[in-house]
Structure formats: C-alpha cells, structure tokens
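Observation: inputs received (chain + NAP).
Thought: call the complex predictor directly.
Action: predict_structure
Action Input:
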Amino acid sequence: MLIAAELKNLLEPAQLVDLEITWLAADQPTPKGDWVALVPLLSRWVGGTQLKHLPNLRIVANCAVGYNNVDVVAAEMRKVIVTNTPGVLTEATADLTWALILATARRLIEGVDLVRTGQWTGWHPEQLLGLELRGRTLGLFGAGRIGQAVGRRAPPFGLRIRYTARTPKPEFERETGAVRVDASQLLGDSDILSLHVPSTPETKGIIDGETLARMKRGAILINTSRGDLIREEALATSLELGHIGAAGLDVYTEEPTIHPRLLAAPRTVLLPHIGSATEDTRRKMAASAVANVQSVLSGKPPLTPVY
Ligand code: NAP
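Observation:
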C-alpha cells in the first residue's frame, strides 16, 4: 500500500502488520504501479489520472473526514472504495472552532500584539471592546457531527442557536434549544456564523459578496470546514469596509497560500488548518484510515465508506 509518510510517527507497528508499505512524501507525485491501497493526506488530489495509474487499487482511505480531494465519481466508476475518518476529529475541531469564536469576539490577537509590541499603556475603559456573547445568536451553517458539537458548547455562553441543514436534527434541538431556519434567515439572524458544511459543488462559494451583504453589520464569520466555501476576495472587501466585523479562519481556498488581501484585512484570526490537530485525534485519524485498509484487504466491508 501507499501511505502518506507524514503519518509514520502517528501509527503503531501493530497497526501495520501484514501490510507492505511504501511511504509517500507530501511533495512526491502519486506514483504509477500495482498498489492496492492508498492513504493520502487531504492535500493530495486523487483524481481520474491518479486512479488510472493505479489499476489494482481497491481503496482510497483518506486521512480526513472531508474528502473533496478525491474524485469520488471517478473512484466509483473504477470500483475503488473511498473511506474517510468521521467522528474521531469532531470534538477537537469543535474546540478549535470555539477558540476562533472567542479569539475573534474578544479581539485576542490584537491584544497580544499590543502587549508584545510594547504599545500597551495600561487599562482603558474603551480598549479593545469586543462582542458580548450572552444573548447573541450563533448560526451554524451545517449541523452534522462538528456543527452540532460546536452548538452543544454554546448554551453555557448564553448564545441562542440557529442552524441550517438538509434534514432536521430533533435531538440536537431538544438538547440545545437550536432552531432550524433556511439559509437566508440564518445569514440575517447570526451575530456569529460558523460554517460546517462539506465542500461540494453545491456549497462552494456559498459565502460570496451577496451573502456577506445579507449578514448583520459587525457579524463574525468563522470557517473551520473548507476554504472554498468562501469567496476570499469578497470577504476581504467586506472586512475592509467593516461590514463583516471579524473573521476566524482555519482553512483557505489555495492552501497553503492565503489571499494577500485576507492576510492584510483587519480583525482576522488566521490559523494554518489545525482544526483536528491534537495528538490524540491525529493518532485516531491515522488509525481509522489504516483500519479501513486492513478491513478491505482482508475481504471485509470498509468501516467508514463515503458512499
Ligand atoms: P457531517 O457530519 O457530514 O456534517 C455536514 C453537515 O453539512 C450536515 O449537517 C449536512 O446536512 C450539511 N450539509 C451538507 N450539504 C449541505 C448543503 N448543500 N446545504 C446545507 N447543509 C448541507 O460532517 P462533519 O464531520 O461535521 O464535517 C464537516 C466538514 O468539516 C468536513 O466536510 C470537513 O471538510 C471539515 N473539517 C475540517 C477540519 C479542519 O481541520 N479544519 C477538521 C474536520 C473536518 P444533513 O445532516 O442534513 O445531511
């Protein structure tokens, strides 16, 4: 099997028994050959060409829950199973989402900069005034595993929850008081809008100039899902004009490149795609991907197939 070399330290030898492994470095193109399994990182595109060059491939076990780096239509046509790592990264990603909510609402980075640059001259009643969370509305665009986990952390902060998903989530509503609304109402109601839909042809660019204009003046936008949900030029413009009050982003359209206007925009907290980056979670993600391979190669069904 071909497996991303960056996962080496996260896997135990016992998890790799009976597997003949070729470690694949991130900067190495996907090779041609008779490998039967591929465990890529989300930064590796696995499309029709790569699949054609791996004629014996039986499984692509993506080491992520998002699988927009895999052409699933091409894989299905070639009868290649595609799996992801759902669940194991939900809580870590929800925690990181909250780190961004708090950092943007309470202007953490500006405060750190003030202290570090020696420009802090002392307590001032109007210094770095942020957004009081209590009584405000948190909008969840997508309420699957991660969206709901973010929502479950909201009631102690006194936030009311609105969410958009294709199907209602009655248990989540009972637990948190969340109310399902359509996308248009979500945009208009949210003081903090957090994106948790996957990147698909329907969701790419859902946050553009028009949708940003429908958000409240001063609202905060959080994205720990996938970068291409947002048109970054439009977000930069909105931040520059002060319509969107702040943005907390973990993901970008062209990673690791960040749009220069976003880098320069005011009131942003920009992280390097670390939503699931805790040691426990990254070990579980690697283990989940390899367990899918082991299952399929031993003739059993995949554990977490994407279709
Ligand atoms: P999930 O459980 O599949 O949840 C996805 C949610 O999006 C569901 O509520 C789904 O609605 C909704 N949805 C899908 N398409 C939609 C559409 N067109 N319109 C409205 N709602 C739509 O996925 P998850 O485990 O929460 O993960 C979400 C995403 O987070 C992943 O796809 C991944 O890209 C990203 N992620 C990022 C990091 C990071 O490091 N920053 C880490 C983990 C995950 P239904 O429930 O009605 O189907």
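Thought: report the result.
Final Answer: The CA atoms of residues 98 and 159 lie 13 Å apart. The chain has eleven helices and twelve strands.
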